């Protein structure tokens, strides 16, 4: 589990194609301070497992399912990526509960700069809009953000200077693809309602 608070920007060092998978090597510093094989690190919001490390880089195996569902399909050496280690029992939950399981890929539609922040509009894959509400949570490329306006096919967020400076979102331009993960609580509530496990008899008035 993650919180959507990016710890550092890493750099894609090497990509090795393996037919229906690839091995991704990322150069980093902070996330390698206490790393061990088998640890989880989120790369642009996608949970990957550390398969090898030399103290300056780490490598993960990326399966076809992940490539099909995330923007890692288009990763190239030199790309900057958002990195976050999995939380521990003593970690502050500074963002919101993030699983690192990308729900879909959106596209940056527009950026509207202001004096101290920037409003960014992102498209939503079909069917994802039902999980978003104004002032609710959304993860964009691994960054925990608050939805300003939830629309049927898109949403907007406001990016503060800290987010612009310390994550890849500062450089994303219209047309760029970004990984999206909706609030997992919304998905659980939807399933319970659909199954009939939540009804008037089970709720207090």
**What is the fold-level CATH name, i.e. the topology of the largest domain?**
Elongation Factor Tu (Ef-tu), domain 3
User: Helical content, roughly?
Assistant: 10-25%
The average pLDDT score comes to 92
Which class of secondary structure composition applies to the elements?
mainly beta
Task: Specify the oligomeric state.
Answer: single chain
Tell me the number of helical segments per DSSP (H or I, 4 or more residues long): 3
Overall CATH class of the largest domain: Mainly Beta
What is the ordering of alpha helices and beta strands? EEEEEEHEEEEEEHEH
Task: Choose one word for the global shape.
Answer: globular
Q: Cα distance, first to last residue?
A: 33 Å
Tags for this entry?
205 residues; mainly beta; Elongation Factor Tu (Ef-tu), domain 3; 2 domains; seven-stranded antiparallel sheet; six-stranded antiparallel β-barrel
General description of the model:
With 205 residues, this protein is mainly β. The chain has 2 domains: 8-85, Elongation Factor Tu (Ef-tu), domain 3 (Beta Barrel), CATH 2.40.30; 104-191, Beta Barrel (Elongation Factor Tu (Ef-tu), domain 3). The protein contains 3 helices and 13 strands. The strands form 2 sheets. A 7-stranded antiparallel beta sheet has the order 4-3-7-1-2-6-5. The longest helix has 12 residues, at 184-195. The two termini are 33 Å apart. The relative contact order is 0.18. The model has no long low-confidence stretch (mean pLDDT 92).
């Amino acid at each position: 589990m993650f919180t959507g608070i990016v710890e550092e920007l890493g750099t894609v060092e090497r990509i090795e194609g393996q037919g229906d998978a690839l091995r991704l090597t990322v150069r980093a510093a902070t996330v390698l301070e206490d790393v061990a094989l088998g640890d989880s690190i989120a790369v642009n919001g996608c949970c990957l497992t550390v398969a090898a490390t030399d103290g300056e880089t780490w490598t993960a195996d990326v399966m076809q399912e992940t490539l099909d569902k995330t923007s890692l399909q288009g990763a190239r050496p030199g790309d900057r990526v958002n990195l976050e280690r999995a939380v521990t029992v003593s970690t502050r939950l500074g963002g919101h509960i993030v699983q690192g399981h990308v729900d879909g890929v959106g596209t940056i539609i527009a950026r509207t700069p202001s004096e101290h922040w920037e409003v960014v509009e992102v498209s939503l894959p079909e069917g994802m809009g039902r999980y978003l509400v104004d002032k609710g949570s959304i993860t964009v490329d691994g960054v925990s953000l608050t939805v300003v306006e939830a629309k049927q096919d898109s949403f907007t967020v406001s990016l503060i200077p800290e987010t612009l400076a310390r994550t890849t979102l500062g450089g994303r331009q219209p047309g760029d693809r970004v990984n999206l993960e909706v609030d997992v609580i919304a998905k659980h509530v939807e399933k319970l309602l659909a199954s009939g496990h939540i009804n008037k008899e089970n709720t207090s008035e």
